[in-house]
């Protein structure tokens, strides 16, 4: 009797411990479930456990494999079998599990412990499951890593198209449900939106909306750009903003579109960031937060791109101005050199005229040209040249013309215009 009573007391004590566990984890964010027997029948569980696996499956008295058939093939039932067989607890860290089936399946991550439950004799009679869902932490870590990579791309001055395309793909990977991302870039005057990135939208759709106007009622993006505020269209099929684009959206299989304007630090319109969904859907706080984070990132990338464009344009203008200045300097040097040559030639011709004037004392009208310089000139002296100081010389038409072109003070001096006629009729 005593042994029986002692055994009953131990069972009661064990049940009391489970009650304490349920009390401890009852309203906690940690998941807790008490499983019984080798079939791992759910004896009890806290609300967090049922919230994690789906409220529609909130029932007890069912084997875990029947309650959650998606666990088959993921190794968790085998681990429970191992703990039940060996009596050794098992702890997993940041373990990935797919919860739900088909379209309702979701990726989740947990830190958890499988702890054996024992009777008074120490025999394993079940397992306690204690865990903490780390999905949001995992997604946050992924988000930070992806965001850091994008910022590094921007800092390295990667092409804007690469940054925006990478950003769109990143969000599509991070989002818990299927989402298709689009980034449109505003024209400098803010009147139209141009294609920036949309890796998962059909080409015909991207081409159709490339260049849409910004304005009230022009879809989600055109309206968001016009209003400078987010525009949430939860059902494209019935929303008046999509009247002109409804058939296009239906062809692309789009049911909802949430668009956020991308604004610069000065409040100017840079573009729009849109998240499309296949079916009508209302955004959650996490969706809106994700949109804000990446809208700011897109703004950083676009502004950096504009700065680089402006810098490149300024550099091009500076190079053009430098080249133009170099051309002017070369031309000025050439003109100066030519002027110096002309001045030297003028001085030489003036000296010839003076020498010729002195020689005319003996020969008033020489037979040969007196303006040929050191090498002389065998041509006939046909034209008389004079300067403002009264000196004169006779020369051939070629050397006379050279003197007129290079020496300002000389002119043709001829009796009865004979010399001038000879020059004009040369």
UniProtKB/TrEMBL annotation:
InterPro entries: GAF, GAF-like_dom_sf, PAS-like_dom_sf, PAS_4. Residues 146-312 form the GAF domain. Pfam families: GAF_2, PAS_4. This is GAF domain-containing protein. It comes from Micromonospora humi.
